[in-house]
Design brief:
It is built from two helices and 13 strands. The protein is an alpha+beta fold.
Length: 216
């Protein structure tokens, strides 16, 4: 079910799933910032220039990481491809490929992060959690913002601010977004929400190119 990638390299500290020099340089920048900054809001602010530069660079995302994936945990043919993961799983970089007309479920992230559009166009709906009883599978949401994102544009995730959203591809080509998150997002047990029924359920989106330890 899962794709595999022969470009994976390992050290005691990290796992790269592509040999891109640009990605390695970006991750080194992130790691340096994390050593000196523990406050998520300050860290995200420091990383914005480097993240913007990454989005504007061409040719570093391998073609296999830019394809839809019919068996993905997000549904809708959405592919989620792991590019980098720290050994302690406290940092990941991955691409999210949303086919034309498809949308993610409404979901949370449970970590600080930066999310930006590498190509295509997306509509993002941001939600606020008004009422919750996760034990009973109930959650009431309210829309707080709707954005249209174009290539090169990005936004920060600083839970609980802006942590719950849904994105839909509005371009005539699949949209590809790049996610830098302070957790192992694909393998973390998160929440997906149903707006019409006020229901919430635990889910694990997974990665299209690597299994989660929890699933092995």
């Amino acid at each position: 079910m899962m794709h595999t990638n022969n470009n994976r390299t390992n050290t005691a500290a990290e796992e790269y799933y592509t040999d891109s020099v640009i990605i390695k340089q970006f991750i080194e920048t992130v790691q340096t910032a994390m050593v000196h900054t523990e406050e998520p809001a300050e860290l995200v602010e420091q990383l914005k220039p480097a993240f913007g530069k990454l989005l504007q660079s061409d040719g570093w995302l391998p073609e296999p990481f830019a394809q839809p994936y019919t068996a993905g945990g997000m549904g809708g043919g959405i592919g989620q491809y792991l590019l980098y993961r720290a050994a302690d799983r406290a940092l990941t970089l991955f691409s999210l490929v949303v086919p034309v007309g498809s949308a993610t479920p409404i979901h949370d992230h449970l970590a600080w992060g930066l999310v930006g559009l590498y190509c295509g166009e997306q509509r993002e709906e941001v939600y606020r959690l008004d009422k919750r009883n996760f034990e009973d599978g109930m959650a009431q949401l309210a829309v707080t913002a709707v954005h249209t994102l174009h290539s090169g544009e990005f936004y920060a995730l600083l839970p609980p601010e802006g942590d719950i959203h849904r994105v839909q591809t509005t371009s005539t080509e699949p949209s590809i977004s790049i996610h830098l998150l302070g957790n192992d997002a694909g393998c973390t047990l998160r929440h997906r929400f149903e707006l019409e029924t006020n229901c919430v359920a635990a889910f694990r989106s997974g990665y299209s190119n690597q299994p989660c330890i929890e699933e092995e």
